[in-house]
Design a protein that fits this description.
Blueprint lengths: L2 H25 L27 H8 L8 H6 L10 H13 L3 H9 L3 H4 L20 H4 L15 H7 L21 E3 L10 E3 L6 H8 L1 E8 L5 E3 L14 E5 L1 H6 L2 H4 L2 E2 L11 E2 L2 H5 L2 E5 L6 E6 L8 H10 L8 H17 L1 E8 L2 E8 L14 E9 L5 E5 L2 E2 L4 E2 L6 E8 L1 H7 L4 E2 L8 E5 L9 H6 L15 E7 L6 E9 L3 H9 L6 H11 L6 E9 L9 H13 L2
Parallel strand pairs: 1-2
Antiparallel strand pairs: 3-4, 3-5, 6-7, 8-9, 10-11, 11-19, 12-13, 12-16, 12-20, 14-15, 16-17, 16-18, 20-21
Length: about 575
């Protein structure tokens, strides 16, 4: 079939799908169209069906020989490998479609990218997804990505013709404005390989810009005005500016990294991240694809710079939901997912450190962000980090507590402690347009205000730059260069010791119940809630802990932190 015939076929299919979902679109609070979500890059129909192989086909050579290091097993247990099966995503997408018609097509760009190859993304409900789509963020998809910014002498020469063949070439990294090689030629980091298929050496796979393709997300239907506020665009018109910085922030992980010290160059974290890479880390891949010495293919050469395809982040609770829901799915291997979950927990345990001091009648707590982006980062809904403080007397009895979490009720005493999180809301204009109340909201697809963002910035934070990038601190003050959050707690009478613990949580009760109660379309909200209960009600994950004897005004330090906290120690009274 010629490209013209294929495009005509896809357009005909699109009209059929549009007619099928027209009723649902009219029922949405904001009747957006596919035109509102149109973005540059590879379009549906540009890559012929079958050109990109499934991960199962990649497994033949890249799996089943070294589950600790091989690309397939490490990827298959991760949320990247299971993205097309995530119950949390499907519940989120249902509510997004109810709020903004056709939003699901935009959501699937990142979460189910193969749907833009199969064409099933044209059905925003996700009901048309098949096994190919559910393969997640696949091996072949990522290894067919082309850097949209062509640099002569550096970019693979094959990419010039691919970019020239596009109607619109992305000028920015973000919003999944990806470019795929329509021939499916695999790109990797090595000039010489033992592969039986064609490979192209491309440094794009080693750079954070590739990760930024999906990990910077702006609401393309909500643009920033000259006064810095965000407002809805005109319906049925393409976004006036494809720069994610001009769009309401839904995720700014790549931007947070880009504007940090890590984005400016290597940072010495003493081997905290990176595996065998050494103490210096900079790119997303440095931390989330740690280096090891191993084979990437069962018959290939041993390499001392093999990047493990772990993609560990903070997705442990989401992985629990997937295993519970797909217990009979052969594509969900509990052992591989368990290994990925352990890596996610380990990543959380290394993402922060604590500094403690007594200042007169108060306990001062500092949470140091050791990551390359805000803490927490990523999708803004439901994610939070908080400080739990317990004061004990000489007999070890509890005499005071802040940030208590009731596991049975899945309830945090937020009023008594500091919670690092981002919350969004609706302006009076948005409230008038949607009929929803102004102020803080769980309708993320409609949000146009940041109500709170006290998440801890990374090293190199600068207020002006983060404001421009759509990642400002809101409701708190961080000075330029600050990469820690601080809280103080009154020391109760009789307390001789303080125990402090930092917790992370992404499946809060409020969030899960909002997705369930707001769902009027399908059963994903109820399914999610049942899975949430079954898997422990989104139990928080301990990140790090410290204790301090209160009869001396000193800091409790380990070797890694000493260089960063000495200045604070000497400043104490």
């Amino acid at each position: 079939m010629s490209n013209q015939a294929r495009v005509s076929t896809v357009r005909w299919r699109m009209w059929i799908v549009l007619l099928a979902v027209a009723g649902a679109a009219l029922a949405a609070l904001v009747p957006l169209t596919l035109e509102d979500f149109h973005l540059s890059g590879t379009q549906i129909g540009d890559v012929p069906a079958g050109v990109l192989e499934t991960s199962g086909e990649c497994r033949v050579c890249h799996g089943d020989f070294d589950p600790e290091d091989e690309p397939y097993s490490t990827w298959a247990g991760s949320l990247m490998g299971q993205a097309g099966r995530d119950p949390l995503f499907f519940a989120q997408m249902t509510n997004a479609n109810q709020d903004a018609a056709n939003a699901g097509t935009f959501c699937m760009r990142c979460h189910v990218p193969m749907s833009f190859v199969t064409g099933h993304a044209l059905d925003p409900s996700g009901a048309s997804l098949d096994a190919v789509d559910r393969d997640g963020v696949t091996c072949h998809f990522c290894h067919s990505l082309v850097d949209p910014v062509y640099v002569p002498g550096s970019s693979p020469p094959e990419d010039e013709a691919i970019l020239a063949g596009l109607d619109e070439v992305p000028a920015f990294y973000g919003n999944s404005m990806f470019v795929l090689d329509p021939q499916g030629r695999r790109r990797g980091p090595y000039e010489e390989t033992d592969a039986p298929h064609l490979t192209i050496a491309s440094d794009f796979v080693r750079r954070s810009e590739m990760c930024g393709t999906c990990h910077d997300v702006g609401n393309v239907a909500v643009s920033r005005r000259p006064d810095g506020s965000w407002r809805y665009n005109t319906i049925d018109e393409r976004v006036p500016d494809e720069d994610p910085w001009t769009q309401f922030p839904l995720e700014r992980t790549y931007t947070e990294w880009k504007l940090s010290s890590f984005g400016a160059g290597a940072v010495d974290l003493g081997g905290r991240f990176g595996g065998a890479r050494g103490p210096l880390v900079s790119t997303c891949q440095d931390c989330h694809m740690p280096t090891t010495t191993a084979r990437g293919c069962y018959f290939g050469r041993v390499r001392d710079d093999l990047a493990r395809h772990e993609f560990a982040g903070a997705a442990a609770p989401a992985l629990d939901l997937i295993v519970a829901h797909y217990a009979d799915d052969p594509a969900v291997d509990p052992a591989l997912v368990a290994a990925a979950r352990a890596r996610a927990v380990s990543m959380l345990e290394r993402a922060a450190t604590l500094g403690l001091a007594r200042e007169g009648g108060e306990l001062a707590v500092r949470v140091y962000n050791q990551s390359g982006h805000k803490l927490p980062t990523g999708h803004i809904e439901g994610r939070r980090v908080w400080i739990h403080v317990r004061f004990l007397d000489a007999a070890g009895a509890l005499v005071g507590e802040h940030g208590h979490y009731d596991a049975a009720e899945a309830h945090l005493d937020e009023a008594s402690t500091t919670v690092f999180e981002m919350k969004v809301g609706l302006s009076p204009d948005a409230a008038a347009a949607t009929g929803l109340p102004a102020g803080e909201t769980t309708h993320m697809a409609l949000a146009d205000t940041i109500e709170k963002d006290n998440r801890i910035p990374p090293r190199g934070f600068a207020n002006a730059a983060y404001e421009e990038g759509g990642a400002p601190a809101v409701g708190t003050v961080y000075v330029d260069g600050q990469y820690w959050g601080e809280a103080r707690y009154p020391i109760p009478a009789g307390a001789v010791r303080a125990e402090v613990e930092l917790f992370y949580q992404s499946l809060t009760r409020h969030y899960i119940e909002a997705l369930r109660d707001g769902n009027t379309t399908d059963d994903w909200g109820e399914i999610l809630h049942e899975l949430w209960v079954e898997t422990g009600r989104g139990a928080p994950i301990p990140m790090t802990r410290r204790s301090l004897v209160l009869d001396a005004e000193v800091l409790f330090l380990d070797d890694f932190e000493t260089g960063y906290l000495t200045a604070w120690s000497t400043a104490l009274p």
